[in-house]
Amino acid sequence: MNKFDRSRFGLFSTLWFFAKRMGAFTSGFDLAEYYRREKFATLRRESLSNVFFKSRIGVVLKTSFKIGNLVVSPPVLSAPMAGYTNYAHREMLRRLGGVGLISTEMASARAFVCMGRRDGEEPARLWGVREEPRPLLVQIWDNCPETLEELGGKLAHEFRVSVVDLNFGCPAPAIAKRSASGSFLLRYPEKVGEIVERVARACAPVPVTAKIRLGITRDTINARDVAEAVEGAGGAALTVHGRTARQMYSGVADWDEIAKVADVLKSIPLIGNGDIKTAREAIERLENYPVAGIMIGRAGIDRPWIFREIAQLLRGEKVAPEPSPRQQRDLLLSHYDLVVERFGVELGVKQMRKVACHYSKGLPGARTFRDHIGRVKTGEEFLRVVAEEYCVDGPEDERLSEPNS
Ligand SMILES: Cc1cc2nc3c(=O)[nH]c(=O)nc-3n(C[C@H](O)[C@H](O)[C@H](O)COP(=O)(O)O)c2cc1C
Question: Where are the beta strands (DSSP E) in 133-174?
Answer without folding.
Answer: 136-141, 163-168
